[in-house]
Design goal:
Length: 187
Amino acid sequence: MVYCPSCVSSNIRKYGTDSARNQKYICTGCRKQFTQKTGTPYCGMRYPEKVVSYALNLHFRHKMPLRQVKSHLGEKGIAVSHVAVHGWVKKFGPTFSQLYMRFREYNRRWHLDMNPSRLNGRFQNLWIVYDANGIPVAVRVAQRRTSAAGEVLVDALRLTGFRPEAIFTNVEGIQEEIRRFHAGELQ
């Protein structure tokens, strides 16, 4: 259930969408407008929180410098500056470093997810592979669905160095890509 961040009322109704296609709400009591990101640390951020957490994963877990994180994200189709990555490290650094110290190894069960997101001024599909602990393993931005699913799985394989025991997904129509990945046809 969604509550108003201003007056904590549950008397709300939907009020359209914003420019990034996030659902907007309006409180019928205090008449304030808000989204589900209002009042969270990700409020007002240009990039989706999944991209931010992937960049922080590269920096803290894989010890990549900020400029290398920037170029790695650029290869995946996400145009971001090293200054933005530095801002994310300053803002979320203590929290994420503790999380990555807690889960040093990647889990062998992965979840493949596809989110339509607005990146670089266009709506694109953001493909993310998570391990069972919720840590992002690999990310890829693409227009087409099936080819990007295989590419992000291969990226995750290269980054972790092992094939998963199981891959879970709720995206329809990509089972063939997952089967080809498990069979070793995708490298």
